[in-house]
Queue: 3 jobs
Job 1
Amino acid sequence: MRILVADDDALFHIVANAVLAGDGYKVLHARDGQEALDLYREHKPDLILTDYQMPGMNGIELCRSIKELDPHRFIPMVMLTGDEKSRILRESLDAGLVEFLTKPVTPDELRLRVRSLVELISLHKNLALAKSKSDEEMLITKHILHRLVEPGLRALPDHIHMETLQTERINGDACTYQQGLPGIHFGLLCDATGHGLAAGVSTIPAIQAFQGMASRDIPLETIYREINTKLRKMLPSGRFVCLLLVRLDIHNGTLSLLNAGLPDAIFMNRRGTVRRFTSRNLPAGVLDKVEDPVVEEVAVSGGERLLTFTDGIQEILGTEEAYRVLTQGMSDTPFEVHRFVIQESLNLGIQENEQHDDVSWALWEVPPPEPVAPPRVDKALPVTLTPQSSPFAFELCFDPRRHPLREVLPDCLRLFSSHGVPGAMNQLLAMTLTEAATNALDHGLLKLDSALKQEGFEAYDTLRKERLASHETGTLTLRLRLYREAPGTVCALSVEVEDSGPGFDWRAWEQVRAADDHQASGRGLLIIRSVASEMSFNESGNCLRFTLSCG
Amino acid sequence: MMLTLHREPSTSMIRLEGNFTFESHTAFRTATQELLDDAETKQITLDLSGLHYMDSSSLGMLLVLREKTEEKGIQVVLIKPSPAVMGILKIVQFGKLFEIREV
């Protein structure tokens, strides 16, 4: 601790030195203001004791000069005055002075005053240290959270926009996007209890669970259950995360939504009719087990919009006002313009009101469905397949009664898409594999007769459910093989779907088919035949083989 | 936030006024702990009529209270929330966890 003493009175220097050096401080002595300023520049003392009346620069001028040199440093300054104190009080207000001492000063008075200021300095230093530490932790957490959601936000398609408008601190808001299977889009908006690091950290398990599960096209209620279980295990009681999950399936024309504790999501059709999706679920992390998650679904065909917010919107625009301003008359505004209007309104709202909370928001537009038959498949092109040229193949064997198709197939497709199978082909694979596997399950394993469908799908479905629930066992084996021409280009996929059932009379089916093209049975096989470059059964009829090729 | 505790044998009422946020944490915990420690307590009524606002931390405090009261078989009832506060309780679906009497 260094103390600078500025006084033209030699006697005060002797007293100050005796008292302060005796207390263990290093004392710097200056005879006038200029010398004091030079010593300050060189040694950066922690505390200044200065006389008011000095030749040249007076005490207040000295204090001002020091303040100018180091405007952001905390330096307590004590002014020693005679009877001029009342006169100079006003001009010392802006000089950064902390205290006055009236001369003559006794050694005890000086000691006491300096000790209390030294205490203040050390408190100030500790505070600054703690703040820089907490700032650093905040930055690291922000960085981690950013890295976690960034890949999703970068992959956003043109028809979806999401962002989090953050305050300087962390407030537990996050949003991200995940592509599911081709044509399927998932979104997450979340807001954790409280503020600061704890809130930020609470969202991490939710985001990770969402990303992993959405990429495998797991239903929203299952994702919500999983996030709930994870958070319940990890968070202390009283902490929870409000969230909103969205799934858009363009090909099947459905938009599904699960709102757990966030403000209403607003859905608009092309005519501008608005429907609200109010929160109907508890936030995640409240209960050990979620009873019945409420997922709502609307049919969409292209052009509809969905607008969602976290509750930070309340203090920026007011929730109801936001709904009014940001949706009215917007249904026929181009998507980019709509998005711009929202961004500008939020920015304006933030400037006008002091923002205390984060707000995350998302705007979705349903694109028109893409044509179902991908043009990239060239059925006529003959493919010569050599097993040697196959770098990637796998076989999957499972009992569809225990592991439902809808859970197994997405994993298969995911595996292929991560090995370079283009989206259009993966879509085709999804369709044909679903048809073939359903066929093998329904007719090969459950031994359901297609003729039942002519009596009504309901009877068929009831019997199917009964047989699925029975204790019989049986397996499906999927063999998939990927062929490449040059590295990175996929030219063909061969598929075998075999069931452990007795097989069926495919020759008879071919004959019936040739006679009547319009009956309900075997439509799945026709779909496969229409897109595959070749399709055949084995002799016993329990194994279907087909090849998909990319021209 | 202002917190007033009216103690009655078995049924006690806590009246909350102002904004219920994290700053009210200690006051709320102290008041509820006193009731929890009393073996006679069968029901805790929280009068919300004077509350303007609840933030997520205060919702968390209600959850903690719910956990503690469940262990002891004490019932928690929320009464007379203002429309603004009722809106918040509805969004987080607290009606599934607490008895809420709007009048």
Job 2
Amino acid sequence: MQRIGVFVCHCGTNIAATVDVSKVAEAAKHEPGVVYAVDYTFMCSEAGQNLIAQAIKDYGLTAIVVCSCSPRMHEATFRKVAEENGVNPYMVEIANIREQCSWVHKNMDEGTPKAITLMKTAVAKVNLDAPLQEGEAPVTKRALVIGGGIAGIQTALDIADCGYKVDIVEKEQTIGGRMAQLDKTFPTLDCSSCILTPRMTEVAQHPNIRLFTYSEVQEVSGFVGNFDVKILKKSRSVREKDCTGCGVCMTKCPSKKIPNEFNRGLNFRTAINIPFAQAIPNVPVIDKEHCIHFKTGKCGICAKVCPSHAVDYEIQDEVIEEKYGAIVVATGFDQIDLHKFGELGYGVSKDVISSLEYERIMSATGPTGGHIVRPSDGKEPKDIVFIQCVGSRCEPDDRRGKTYCSKICCMYTAKQSIMTCDHIPGAKCHVFYIDVRTPGKMFDEFYRRAVEQYGVDYIKGNVGKVTPLPNGKLRVHGVDLLDQKEVELDTDMVVLAGAIEPNPSIRPLATKLTLSIDNNNFLNEAHAKLHPVEAATAGVFMAGTVQGPKDIPETVAQAGAAAVKAVALLAKDKLKTNPCVAQPDELYCNGCSVCANVCPYGAITYIEKEVRDHGVRETRRLAQVNPSLCKGCGACTVACPSGAMNLKGFTNRQIMAEVDSVCQ
Amino acid sequence: MTPDEMKVRDYILKIYDGDVTKCMHCGKCSASCPAYGEMDIKPHQFPSYVAHGEIAALMDSKTIWECLGCSACVERCPRGVKPGKLIDGVRQAVIRQRGGSHLYPEQIPAMVDPETPQQLLVSVLRRERK
């Protein structure tokens, strides 16, 4: 028989306001096995923990029930107290009387009986608990970073500087991501490329970093500390070790009319292409879909003109298999498709463009060499209208937009309007806004600078319609809600601050890594406040806009945080494994394979074993669980037709005892 | 708000069948409205007027007679507030308070021009079904 101590927490008034905690403690004293029960204001405080320690000594407790908050919050705290005082940590049960009881009930008449039931359930379970021992697993001292934008670059550099090996997998042919497409960065107006490209070079030269560009994560298996990853390295059709990046192939390639993705389709590229001068690696890729040689077998000009004979059409895709201890996901964002906003003229007039397209137009490496001109006729615009919140802040049922605020648009619109005035003397900028949201260091000052020093015309109100006029101008029809009047502007160019969304590649990747994503495809953190860079899957971390909208400084800070979490994992020689794994009972198992079929982790195999049953010796086919692969999900225990499979710490008998105590 | 006004507001909200607190005052409705210039209380003001209980002002407004019922505001509102339906609601409340200015189903066939496309009738009834 166990000697059980029950500790009921008030959690200040969180629990005590809707649960009569002393009644719960009193009721506990009559439960089988309970030798001590008490209530206290904060069980998680040092004084509360001491109370448990003292009770273990005074009453010789062998098992502990804490009636408090969710086990996700403090199970680890109370297990530690038990362990330090000589009680096996798995002899601790938490009755969640906060999230599942006091917070959902309004008065004590409902809260108290339910709390007592939950307490009884935990006592029933702890009576059948058995001490469990944690196992150990080795840690592969190498991290994988998925995504080579600023988030991935910063994470990789930070991990590598701590002395650990890192691989970056980037699906595009160069690292750099969205930041490489930007012109200047707010609020300091640093040139984006100038601050990014040194970091890109650092990545390329770092002895601890390997780069897999034009590659994708194909398959992930294993578990924290021991992930097995298959990386598909797509063929560039150019040998990286031979290519010097001279670019002769690009000048001679006859297939020249392919929309340039790096410039958001504003100009054309060749089939063999390097997207921008500072690309890392500075090696072209042959786009097989558009290459004349791959389509018809003819041409082959690039191979002929290449001075270092680096072009090789025969190179095949390659699959690389590698083991990793930790994985950081940093797949970034994209801008939503604005074609749905027909009333704003996107896709109707060439001079209505997205803010990211405008970045390319402003950039010195862009299609116009940094000269701000209208895409339609190449003329310099004198009057530009910026429209904010296009597709942001919509209701959940909206078919065109996202529910969240994209966070960065207010600041980059202020930046774009300032830059426009700098580029084009005498230019007039108008910004239609709903709210100007500029919290941050020197952010609001920056926005005020646009208004006060550059005379940018901020209009509170949305735009109803943008109509192209026969004279080439665009008529913008909106309202000024502060002056309560209609606004009609004939302008040269319209820039739409479209909402951002997670890069679509995150969906299949999240499936491969068993990560949870929210309604908008952003990754969910393990805890919104206390585990902001950890995914719910152990050993997987996140950085940058894959987690939510954020600007560059926030992304870099989060990348550093993710790197530290990954390093903290890699620094361990061994990891403790969860002892709550499945265990088959040889005498009940009939080898039917049902458990192996439902196991999502491939943890169950079969052995032929000689057993002795009622004096009869026979060879049977029996299930065997690999404890380092088992995640303790319990799917096998419910699937097993003969009840042979049990989850340690959650055995079938324990579950039934809990159900019985609820139904009493 | 007088008790009478409260009653009218409840009536308007019943016809409206939406949520005025969803409005984020972006002005998309007013910017999309072809009759904006003729209106005294603008479409984007309707949700806050209702929320603040200024029902009498809405019922006296020119707007409810200037609204063309084109539903551009309903279609384009990013928050699903449907200002056009709110204007409809106020107009209905005014008409019904006057009393007598409604049709009974059996009167309709006699009053409708036989050339009127049936689709138009259906769409009107659908829009005004509450």
Job 3
Amino acid sequence: MSAQLDLPLSQVLVFEKTGRVLWRRGAPTLKGDPLSELVGAYLLEEKGGTQSARIGDHALDWRFVNEADLVVVTAAPASMELDWTGDLCDSVRKKVAALAKSGHVQEALRSSFDPTFDGLEKEFEARLRIRRKKQQADLEARKARSAEAAQRRAEAEAEAAEAAEEEEGAEKTDEDPLARLKRRTATKSSSGGRRRGKKKPTDSSEKAGKKPTVWRDGSQRNKKATAAEVAALDRSGAHGDAAAQQAAQDRHLEEMRGTYLANEGEKAAWDEEEELLLEDESDDEAAPKSWFGRNVGNLLNNVAGSQTLTKEEIEPVMADLRKTLLEKNVAVEVADAVTKSVADSLVGQKVERFGRASTMIKQALAAAVERVLTPKRSTDVLREVLDAKRKGKTYSIVFVGINGVGKSTSLSKVAYYLKEHNIDVMITACDTFRSGAVEQLRSHAKCLDVELFEKGYLKDPADVARASLVHAKQAKKDCVLIDTAGRMQNNDKLMRELAKLVSVNTPDLVLFVGEALVGNDGIDQLNMFNKSLAQFCSDGRTIDGLVLTKFDTIDDKVGATLSMTYKTGQPIMFIGVGQKYTHLKKLSVNAVVNALFK
Amino acid sequence: MLPRLLFLICAALSASRAVAQEQQAVADEPLQAAESADAAPEPAEPEVPQPPKKEEEPASNPIPLAVGGAAALAALALLLGGGSKKKQPAALLLGPSNAGKTLLFHRLVNNEIEETVASMKSDEGIVDNKLLVDVPGHRRLRNEVTKELKRATKIVFMVDAADATRQAKAAAELLYEIFCQDSRPSLLILCNKKDRPGAKTPARIKLTLASEIETLHKTAKTMGSTGDDTQQVAPIDTAGKFFSFESHAPCACTFLAYSAREDKLDAVREFLLK
């Protein structure tokens, strides 16, 4: 269980969803506990479909083995930017799935998975060696090319100095045709690389990180590339004896092939090749080992009437459920992501005996939605305020959002709620942008009989907020509610201002106020708002919670609750259900799940 | 579906014992227990709970063939009745994430010290012939706790004593939920990882938790929710006084400094058997 990894990884492990680690290689614990983060922030939020993420200092890849309710994870130092860990994770998954088919996967993993993994490790090392060689060849070829190009440039410059323009044209036709070809391929390959980067922006970091991936020992080898080899590559200069040239040519051809493959087909072609190889092997190996066990297992399954879910079975049911979600105003993007993630987690699972597949799928989706909606931390604001009060601190909440969604009204409702429970509240008017905003807030403050802190307009809202916090501390207020100007997420100036307000004053809570009736565009807005805030905030802070207004207008179209919590991962702290100050409620997760799936 | 079922019943009635046992796992546990009690008053054996969903577990108790048949009929009734399941009563392992629940669970059930990661699903096992459920502590799985609490007979509640300051809030929330529901299972509160540096004493943890529960008690029912489902009223009555475990907790709570990794299991087993 504690054996070292030969590959440059931190950890490879297989664990049960119930929390038991069945098999592990590498470090016993990782710094920053990325596994807990993985479970909490990805797997339980139905973001498992992404299959890889950078968490803290580690790059994690994960795959589910639904047949046995297991998860396979590989963790590597993120700084190494390895691009083959996903493949390794896939391969491990395949082997574990083969074991799962034969039953008794727990025991099998513990007793006999070590040699299987050793085999995989060897395979991958071989792959990496091949690749390193290719990279080396590639590098040498490039070196040769650049040397040649430099020489040519020098020649051209010298000639250009003495010759006229026509003569320069003549020189170009005189040029060695092979060199010209090489030059052309060089430019082609570089432009190809750029195009790929643009096409797949999501992969760009991975792909970009690929070229400079330099193996510790690989780099040394690269440095050791001898001058002789470089010379052998540079065919334009080599006019030695025939036999040597033949040998050199053969080798060169080989290397050129590698170069071209690497340049044009890049990873895709090579990896597919390797993938096929792996699959073949896993089949060959799995067949004799588990044939007996699998058949007996199948027989038993048939007798007992149990069967596993297939993709074909799941898809139509899931499509219907997705439609229902859309009808309830869940954003398309979110409905797609959640249903896909749940579908992925179901393929291969056993249908509960005497259960119906469609019921099982619906239940799984409902459970997933419930998990996403269930807050990852307490939504009890009053408790937080009381805690702060006990410690003699002033609690601060900033309300942000786009224009006209009901920020000031929501803020007033929260002020009323807190005041009702003997909290000394103060309101700060930081909307120094829209005329009339301060007056509007003043009338609320009068109505609530709560102190209003304002510095008029034409002030930096961050300064106003800071001054108000200082004042609140002196006046021993328990809680400060800060109103900000409504702003569109694409208004850079105002977003910067807001980010400054947040990062300078570090409020205890940043609440995003949004309408419960928003559909797809509302989710985009929230997403962009959050991103833009994170981008401009020095500490990358984002919103901590959501306030949904106008909930009384949506009937059972409660989809926005799911969309917003899924996209942000943050809980819904308050729900506005009317005009009056008392019209403030908590979200009932059960009610939403019922509305979505009844 | 139908041919499969017919085949199944035939198989059961043809009295192949292996099939009957497979069957028995198929049938719903409580139903099966009831059937067996009706059909043949066997010496207490069918009363012993079995871990559901674990086929690989070798069936240890012999089941009369008649029961197999009865189970098949029961299964048929279950299928026609829509297959609603009522869960068996069980002892629960509860507590915030990373308190050491899964480690203790496997020590109790398999007598092995296992490596663990954060759990995503509940696990069930047998300790001294009693069913024990390891319930994940992650906040997002809170509804799981609510569901499992309905069948709780006893609760082993775990807190990381070395991380008590951070876990106090989550732990208090859980305890408050336990206190606010109908059944009154007794609690053993393990202040786990007592051997770690900075581990708080049970007395200290008790105070912190009491103070957190006091706050929760004040704030819990201050705002209605959007659902119509009215939750049960808070049963804690502190009569205006500061909450304390001794005088206000609705069920017996015992605090114990513990190390799930190193300590003997006797204390926990005793509690579970009591």
